[in-house]
Amino acid sequence: MPEFLLLALAAGLGVALVSGPLGCFAVWRRMAYFGDTMAHSALLGVTLGLLLDININLAVAMGCLLIALLLVALQRGRQLATDTLLGILSHSTLALGLVAISVISPGRINLMGYLFGDILATTTVDVITIWAVGILVLIALAYLWRPLLSITVHEDLAHVEGVPVTAVRTALMLLMALVIAIAMKVVGVLLITALLIIPAATARRLARTPEQMALFASGIGALAVVGGLTASFYWDWPAGPAIVLGTTGVFVLSLLKKQTQ
């Protein structure tokens, strides 16, 4: 197996491992639109990296975290509904990122790679970054698992039981922002949310407990990564979209399985 394919596989599996349990909370709490907003804001991080001449991955993570904190602050103001805020931030950050990149560095940046992923160009540093961030996110999720489940079931009841609802909700948003930042290399800005949502939605139809759903979602994501890279290697498909199609294929099979039962 070529070295570039091994690096791509390692990066994809790292993202699938952490996006599984995080995607479960995105499905349970109906945060798909939040994922889109974070993904679109990643392009602003690219712009920030070019302006400050710093590592692009670090800049993307900083951009996503800043947008997540901005959203938390705007939600507290209660000036607009959350879905309206997400819609404004999502499309504004995407448009601003596209314009800024075209002005700052015209023709120098592989824009298609950022939009649809460039997993086959993954480096050893990328793989180390993805796994390091992924492990940290998984540790944080394990620590916050019970409080997150509590606020997902009923926020008011969790608050009465002493759960710091606002802090836990903010932590979830920041963790999702970090995962979206590292996933951009694998499937790109426009497809990140699919990698979060589709495996979790599939696992929801198969699992009986929240923990099972998280494990199944990671496994489905990993299976899709292997299938997508295989299709890319043998049939020259674009790797990022092929991975997302792999998750969609498993989801369709889960629908058929339920119908035959």
Automatic annotation (TrEMBL):
<keyword id="KW-1003">Cell membrane</keyword>
<keyword id="KW-0812">Transmembrane</keyword>
<feature type="transmembrane region" description="Helical">
    <location>
        <begin position="239"/>
        <end position="256"/>
    </location>
</feature>
<keyword id="KW-1133">Transmembrane helix</keyword>
<keyword id="KW-0864">Zinc transport</keyword>
<keyword id="KW-0406">Ion transport</keyword>
<feature type="transmembrane region" description="Helical">
    <location>
        <begin position="125"/>
        <end position="145"/>
    </location>
</feature>
<feature type="transmembrane region" description="Helical">
    <location>
        <begin position="213"/>
        <end position="233"/>
    </location>
</feature>
<feature type="transmembrane region" description="Helical">
    <location>
        <begin position="50"/>
        <end position="73"/>
    </location>
</feature>
<keyword id="KW-0472">Membrane</keyword>
<protein>
    <recommendedName>
        <fullName>High-affinity zinc uptake system membrane protein ZnuB</fullName>
    </recommendedName>
</protein>
<dbReference type="Pfam" id="PF00950">
    <property type="entry name" value="ABC-3"/>
</dbReference>
<keyword id="KW-0862">Zinc</keyword>
<keyword id="KW-0813">Transport</keyword>
<dbReference type="InterPro" id="IPR037294">
    <property type="entry name" value="ABC_BtuC-like"/>
</dbReference>
<comment type="similarity">
    <text>Belongs to the ABC-3 integral membrane protein family.</text>
</comment>
<dbReference type="InterPro" id="IPR001626">
    <property type="entry name" value="ABC_TroCD"/>
</dbReference>
<comment type="function">
    <text>Involved in the high-affinity zinc uptake transport system.</text>
</comment>
<feature type="transmembrane region" description="Helical">
    <location>
        <begin position="85"/>
        <end position="105"/>
    </location>
</feature>
<feature type="transmembrane region" description="Helical">
    <location>
        <begin position="182"/>
        <end position="201"/>
    </location>
</feature>
